């Protein structure tokens, strides 16, 4: 159940304030009954009209996309490049939750649920994101450990919750590292490695909270289940 003015605004009919005005003027009906009380709530099954026009209620949609490299995390691009929303077939206007760089692949949530988006990106909720990092060098494990206490990049302290060297190939100068962070600062992972003298060769987000990419190939997506959406909400304040 949501307040009537919120449902009307979410449908894109008008702003929430305008919807309140229309309700107070007696121009809104719910299941044929005129409503003037601003506290009134309605649900998806209710027939709502404004000025005689039926409101198409917005259904919340939650997508888990395996973002390929070479795609912009945005809804539009002024240079006409392909964006993550181009990969998804939907009638809803979905927005990415946070962002992955153009050359980063991996797990990205898209939704029209602004409340969940805000909760997932707010640092106070400490939603953990796990990345796999490839470096074309044999890294010094001592330097990697520094990330746990924090490294300085552009006057900002950037910290990892966990970091683990998965493979250190000294012969071929290659390292694979798993890193978990809960903040989502601009280019955070790449900047953390730069701060200790390494350039990230490739970056992939493997996990967000309890969600991972199981069953998906690059460019594919699936809808979150109701259970998963509820579980995400339960992780946040
Ligand atoms: N950190 C980065 O540097 N880039 C991303 O795309 C995500 C995290």
Describe this structure in words.
- The chain has 237 residues and is α+β, with helices and mostly antiparallel strands.
- Helix content is 21%, strand content 31%.
- The chain has helices spanning 4-10, 16-24, 114-121, 141-149, 188-195, 226-234; strands at residues 2-3, 28-30, 33-35, 41-42, 48-50, 53-54, 62-67, 95-96, 104-111, 129-135, 151-153, 156-158, 162-169, 174-181, 200-208, 211-212, 221-223.
- Strands 7, 8, 9, 10, 13, 14, 15, 16 and 17 form a 9-stranded mixed sheet that branches. The protein has a 4-stranded antiparallel sheet with strand order 3-2-5-6. Strands 1-4 form a two-stranded antiparallel ribbon.
- Strand 11 and strand 12 (156-158) form a beta hairpin.
- Helix 1 (4-10) crosses helix 2.
- Bound molecules: uracil.
- The site of uracil (URA) has 8 residues, from helix 5.
Helix content: 10-25%
The profile of the biggest β sheet is: 9 strands, mixed
Bound molecules: uracil
What is the overall silhouette?
A: elongated
- What's the number of helices? 6
Rg result: 22 Å
Search tags:
237 residues; alpha+beta; single chain; 21% helix
Topology of this structure?
Layout: E1 2-3, H1 4-10, H2 16-24, E2 28-30, E3 33-35, E4 41-42, E5 48-50, E6 53-54, E7 62-67, E8 95-96, E9 104-111, H3 114-121, E10 129-135, H4 141-149, E11 151-153, E12 156-158, E13 162-169, E14 174-181, H5 188-195, E15 200-208, E16 211-212, E17 221-223, H6 226-234
Parallel strand pairs: 9-15
Antiparallel strand pairs: 1-4, 2-3, 2-5, 5-6, 7-9, 7-17, 8-9, 10-14, 10-15, 11-12, 13-14, 15-16
The structure holds uracil.
């Amino acid at each position: 159940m949501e307040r009537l003015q919120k449902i009307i605004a979410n449908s894109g009919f008008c702003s929430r304030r305008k919807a309140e005005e229309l309700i107070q003027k007696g121009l809104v009906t719910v299941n044929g009954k005129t409503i003037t009380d601003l506290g009134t709530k309605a649900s998806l099954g209710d027939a709502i009209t404004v000025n005689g026009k039926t409101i198409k209620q917005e259904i919340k949609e939650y997508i888990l996309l395996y973002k390929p490299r070479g795609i912009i995390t945005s809804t539009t691009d002024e240079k006409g490049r392909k964006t993550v929303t181009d990969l998804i077939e939907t009638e809803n206007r979905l927005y990415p939750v946070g962002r992955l760089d153009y050359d980063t692949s991996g797990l990205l949530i898209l939704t029209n649920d602004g409340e969940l988006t805000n909760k997932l990106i707010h640092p106070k909720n400490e939603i953990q994101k796990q990345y796999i990092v490839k470096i074309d060098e044999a890294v010094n494990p001592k330097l990697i450990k520094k990330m746990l206490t924090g490294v300085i990049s552009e006057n900002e302290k950037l910290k990892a919750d966990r970091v683990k060297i998965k493979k250190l190939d000294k012969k071929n100068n290659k390292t694979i590292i798993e890193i978990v962070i809960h903040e989502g600062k601009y280019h955070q992972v790449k900047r953390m490695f730069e701060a200790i003298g390494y350039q990230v060769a490739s970056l992939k987000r493997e996990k967000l909270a309890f969600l991972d990419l199981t069953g998906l190939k690059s460019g594919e997506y699936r809808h979150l289940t109701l259970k998963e959406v509820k579980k995400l909400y339960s992780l946040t304040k």
